[in-house]
């Protein structure tokens, strides 16, 4: 298991967080950003909600990273 495999794993995790739908998945479980108050940003749940929304905000760089990963896999085999 090398560095490239670890980076691919983090990329897959970021993709999984980016596709979570707030209305259908996050809000029914109480994980929506609107229910998230500023006082609870230091809790683990607050940090996780922030990570989910940060990954959803960074969708365009994720698309570029996925394209780079695909090209490297095609070239290297």
UniProtKB/TrEMBL annotation:
<dbReference type="InterPro" id="IPR013880">
    <property type="entry name" value="Yos1"/>
</dbReference>
<dbReference type="GO" id="GO:0005789">
    <property type="term" value="C:endoplasmic reticulum membrane"/>
</dbReference>
<dbReference type="GO" id="GO:0006888">
    <property type="term" value="P:endoplasmic reticulum to Golgi vesicle-mediated transport"/>
</dbReference>
<feature type="signal peptide">
    <location>
        <begin position="1"/>
        <end position="18"/>
    </location>
</feature>
<dbReference type="GO" id="GO:0030134">
    <property type="term" value="C:COPII-coated ER to Golgi transport vesicle"/>
</dbReference>
<dbReference type="GO" id="GO:0000139">
    <property type="term" value="C:Golgi membrane"/>
</dbReference>
<keyword id="KW-0732">Signal</keyword>
<protein>
    <submittedName>
        <fullName>Immediate early response 3-interacting protein 1-like isoform X2</fullName>
    </submittedName>
</protein>
<dbReference type="Pfam" id="PF08571">
    <property type="entry name" value="Yos1"/>
</dbReference>
